[in-house]
Amino acid sequence: MSRTGGPEVMEYVDVEVGAPGPGEATVKHEAIGVNFIDVYFRTGLYPQPLPNGLGMEGAGTVEAVGEGVTHVQVGDRVAYAGRPNGAYAQVRNVPASLLVVLPTQIAFDTAAAMMLQGMTAQYLLHRTAHLKPGDTVLWHAAAGGVGLIACQWAKVMGVNLIGTVGSDEKAALAIEHGAAHVINYRRENFTEKVKELTGGEGVSVVYDSIGQDTFYGSLDCLAPLGLMVSFGNASGPVPAFAPSELQSRGSLFLTRPTMMHYTAKREDLEATARSLFGVVASGEVKIAINQRYHLPDAAQAHIDLESRNTTGSSILVPR
Question: Which residue intervals define the domain Enoyl reductase (ER) in the entry (predicted)?
């Protein structure tokens, strides 16, 4: 893309991929993940130098390594999630620091569909909040890619997850994946329903990737000393607000995390990926790839994603 805007700004073009530089590896993609953060970069909500590519997640095989790269080698099956953008490609040079070796029992398409979303669910559930069995949390967009992983993982942890969705079909999907309760926000006031489900107490944590439309309602779902985790802006960025809004609702906590900080250290990246690979390989968490597109059809993937016509994960297939 050479400009920001709608899905039409994405162009399918040929580019020359040179040899990997120091600290890089050349990866031939077998599958590529599509995530809502890609929309933020495409529209310019999150700025990046242009012209540039899109996509933060992929899986494939190492074809070459640059100087100083030792933890992966030619022929390794690898997966990654993180910046710089550019995963919407058949082949690309990737900072080798992002790459983790993929266990043989996890397929390329599963890996591409889960790295960003799965590691996001991992750090949110295990590190951002200190959850314990019996806790009750609210998770918006429970039938989305991160949401379906979180529904399953929360159940494994003994955490009661209340999910919000926009249709009966999505409600059934979230329940099938382990949500304790589901609220269809098109028919019910989610704040009132959460209070009803918790006997008026509220939840200990709200995970909100919607942003503008749900922010204040989410705060009102929290019990005193509860934690608001704002990790996305699907409806637009959260408007400026006074810190007293947190005080008046019970001395609430607010965080705006990003996976890049939680996996900045190599040991943290490997531990996060290892935790994800473990629950997926065991079958405790299943990755739902509900949309597949050929790479030239990336614009349609974005149209479907922004229209909220998708569930689970979406991937692009390079060939």
Answer: 5-316
